[in-house]
Amino acid sequence: MSNFVSSSIGKKFFMSITGFFLMMFLLVHLSINLLLIFDDSGELFNMGAHFMGTNPLIRIVEPILAIGFILHMAYAVYLTWQNMKARPVDYKQVNQKEASTWASRNMFVLGLLITSFLVLHIMNFYWKLKIEKSVGLVMVSGAEMHDAYTLVAGLFKSSLAYDLVYIFGAIVLGIHLTHGFWSAFQTMGWSGNLWRKRIEFVGNVFAIIIAIGFSIIPLYFIIRF
Amino acid sequence: MSEKILKEIKVRVWKQKNSTAKGKFETYTVHNISTDTSFLEMLDILNMQLVEEGKEPIVFDHDCREGICGTCSLFINGRAHGPDDDITTCQLHMRKFKDGETITVEPFRVGAFPVIKDLMVDRTAFEKILQAGGFVSVNTGGIPDGNAIPISYDDAEAAMDAASCIGCGACVATCKNSSAMLFVSAKVSHLARLPQGKIEASRRAKAMVAKMDELGFGNCSNTGACEVECPKGISIANIATLNREYLMAKIKD
Ligand code: HEM
Ligand code: SF4
Ligand code: FES
């Protein structure tokens, strides 16, 4: 087992499995977030956020999610460092435009951008809700809960700069996934000459759903308010 | 394609005395090169010119000069085996270049393939990976009748495609991670598909990957550049096969 963890394919296995996990998280996250734009009173979203914050299953998944992120990032740094070391002298001239996609060559840079977005995102919302506990309470259908809607909608209504940062974050994530989705399957060995085209297609659709889905929310607040 | 004459070509070549010396680029000029000349022949002409001038010729690898041995290498204008598809450097012709052009020629730059001199690199690392498991341990018997081997047409074809790897190292040279996965996967999936090779498939996948990691090749990130530059069109579907073989072998342990 120890040499599996340190082997190249073993490390890639962890990249892939955490990637799959993070992609599933994104789908859940996006579904809840879309409640923001379907109910301007904020009740639906508050109920969704309350459910996510109190449901025991979600409470268990939350630390696993954090570990997934940390593992994905740690392996990304380690793999990228090893890959740089494997070519001690660089080429003076490289022409790879036709041989591979831009996203596939820049996964680490995209990952760093996602990380910086993530820090900002946690400070904006998670921190205020869970750590600082500075968010007001509301009553929705007889239950008392945090007014997460006012927190999120307030930010998006008040600051065009934040809206643009969130849209940028969604697009960067989408680009990461144009390569990441199919790559995760390939790493697991779930690909071949025929399936590759299908998985790449589904991956591009998934990436577009993520990029547009998350962008729509700040866009909605820019346009409507 | 009708023959033309390139009046003047500048060749910017990497010169390096030995594996430890610090190299540098040197620019040479050659005149009146036919577009039907192969790239290596152009280097031959340049070398003759250098010898006549009393200078040291450029050292580069080559052998069969017909695209089957995998000895020629070179990174030309930013691409392994130069600006053409599905060919080795010895199959590259000067018709791919323009008159007056400056052509940049570098050695394959891979930590595990140290430069011996100028453009010649040491690809012994590939032999070591093969010695670790790229074989079938059958030491006796005559040549079996091809038609008597129980194998499906599709498997035979896929194994044959993978077997066409000539071990040139272009996949590693072009990979941004210097990963040897395409080469290793070609051998692993070629043998894993054949009845003779299946028996040792798990051991082979583990041994070859371990050797590849030990020699300092990078980690594959599925960019797919290798299959585009591979002169034999080896598909990265073989890398999926290798990943599957390796993960299954580790699960069985
Ligand atoms: C929600 C966020 C994220 C998702 C859904 C995600 C998803 C993925 C997926 C599916 C892969 C393909 C795995 C494979 O090739 O087997 C991948 C690769 C990669 N990710 Fe992420 N990722 C996320 C965040 C990050 C972050 C924060 C970093 C930080 C540095 C990062 C860096 C990388 C790198 C460098 C690779 C390529 C690794 C390789 O192929 O060797 N990702 N990602
Ligand atoms: S896989 Fe292709 S590029 Fe790599 S060594 Fe074999 S023939 Fe050369
Ligand atoms: S010299 Fe043999 S393949 Fe080019």
What does this structure look like?
The complex is a heterodimer of chains A (225) and B (253). With 225 residues, chain A is mainly alpha-helical. Chain A has one domain: Up-down Bundle (3 helical TM bundles of succinate and fumarate reductases), CATH 1.20.1300.10. Chain A has helices at 2-6, 8-34, 43-54, 56-85, 102-105, 107-131, 148-158, 160-188, 193-224; strands at 137-140, 143-146. Chain A has a two-stranded antiparallel sheet. In chain A, strand 1 (137-140) and strand 2 (143-146) form a beta hairpin. In chain A, helix 2 (8-34) crosses helix 8 and helix 6 crosses helix 8 (160-188). The longest helix of chain A is centred in the C-terminal third of the chain and has 32 residues, at 193-224. The relative contact order of chain A is 0.13. Chain B has 9 helices and 7 strands. In chain B, strands 2-1-5-3-4 form a 5-stranded mixed β-sheet. Chain B has a two-stranded antiparallel sheet with strand order 6-7. Chain B is elongated, with a radius of gyration of 20 Å. Chains A and B meet through helix 1, helix 2, helix 4 and helix 8 of A and helix 7, helix 8 and helix 9 of B. Bound molecules: protoporphyrin IX containing FE, iron/sulfur cluster and FE2/S2 (inorganic) cluster. Protoporphyrin IX containing FE (HEM) sits between chains A (12, 15-16, 19, 22-23, 26, 72-73, 76, 79-80, 107-108, 111-112, 114-115, 176, 180-181, 183-184, 187) and B (219, 221-222).
Number of strands of chain B: 7
Tell me what portion of residues of chain A adopts beta-strand conformation.
under 5%
How confident overall, as mean pLDDT of chain A? 94
Helix count of chain A equals: 9
- Point out poorly predicted stretches of chain A: none
Radius of gyration of chain B: 20 Å
Level-1 CATH class name of chain A? Mainly Alpha
Total helical elements of chain B: 9
Terminal CA distance of chain A: 56 Å
The level 1 CATH classification of the largest domain in chain B is Mainly Alpha
The CATH architecture of the largest domain in chain B: Orthogonal Bundle
Q: How would you sum up the major sheet of chain A?
A: 2 strands, antiparallel
Secondary structure: helix percent of chain A: over 70%
Reading side by side through the largest sheet of chain A, how are the strands ordered?
Answer: 1-2
Distance between the termini of chain B: 58 Å
Order of helices and strands of chain B: EEHEEEEEHHHHHHHH
